[in-house]
Amino acid sequence: MIFRKIKIILEMIKFEHTIFALPFAIMSAFIASDGIPAPDKLIWILFAMIGARSCAMAFNRLADSGFDSANPRTAARAIPAGRITKRAVWVFTVVSAALLVFAAYKLNPLAFTLSPVALAVIVGYSYSKRWTILSHFWLGLSISIAPIGAWIAITGTLDWPPMLLGSAVLLWIGGFDIIYACQDYEFDRKHGLFSIPARYGKQRALLLSSTLHAVMVAVLIGVTAITDLGVFYLIGVGIVTILLIYEHAIVRPNDLSRVNLAFFTLNGVVSLVLMALSVADMLVGIN
Fold first, then answer.
1. Distance CA 218, CA 84 (A)
2. Cβ–Cβ under 8 Å, residues 263 and 176
3. Is 255 helix (H, G, I), strand (E, B) or coil?
4. Helices vs strands, H then E, count in the chain
5. Taking a C-beta distance cutoff of 8 angstroms, is the pair 181, 136 a contact?
6. Nearest in space to 247 (alpha carbons), one of 216, 222, 279
7. What is the mean pLDDT of residues 273-281?
8. Which of 192, 215, 228, 282 has CA 20 to 30 A from 125's CA?
9. pTM of the model
10. Measured between alpha carbons, how far is residue 222 from residues 11, 66, 126, 202 in Å?
11. What integer pLDDT is reported at residue 287 of this predicted model?
12. 74 closest CA partner among 164, 187, 176
């Protein structure tokens, strides 16, 4: 029974989409270590990432369950469809938060001290759409914690490289969340929810998303000025640029049929490609 509930919750929070943020955390860990991080550090970073995202997504489903019930696009989700109780999701949320805090405790004092701040940011996002059109950037900020937190986990300090990587993640996530929000343009306007598409229309929103991703690429290139990343990393940035161009080419204000391809598939590839080539760059530098 409990395993069935866990399976439903993992499907509900789309556990596999941890892939968006985790590669940036691993990339940051390799850069901070100037090579291969200690295995125990990587393990606790992985647990912290799993705890953070699981907590954030489960809490989001709880906070938005009322809106999900009213929205035809989301009415089939587990809570509004009655396939899981809120109590079960609350237990999962609390356990996930505890996993993040415990993993941070095992990493170092600074990570542990900042873990409640991270929780406040990622949980607070769920209510941001009720009062600000900047909710897309709040989501970006939540996920930008991944490379910043991984750097702190390795070094016990904060520096400019993870801040730049975090800024790139914020721009990337904010940009594609704007694309995703275009699907709920009518619903958000009808129910008084705040989003950039609802405020400015889908065409302007998609233009802003393109601009954010262009700036993201510039920030990623700028990372090379303060790290040892070189040719392989820049090849990764080039591939990411091509993927982002394609992402914007397949989404139109009057045709959102391929949003899921742009949002889930392509963005998963973006993070994996950049991580793989960044790690390759660091490993080549060791030899």
1. 44
2. yes
3. strand
4. 14, 0
5. yes
6. 216
7. 94
8. 215
9. 0.93
10. 37, 43, 31, 30
11. 46
12. 187
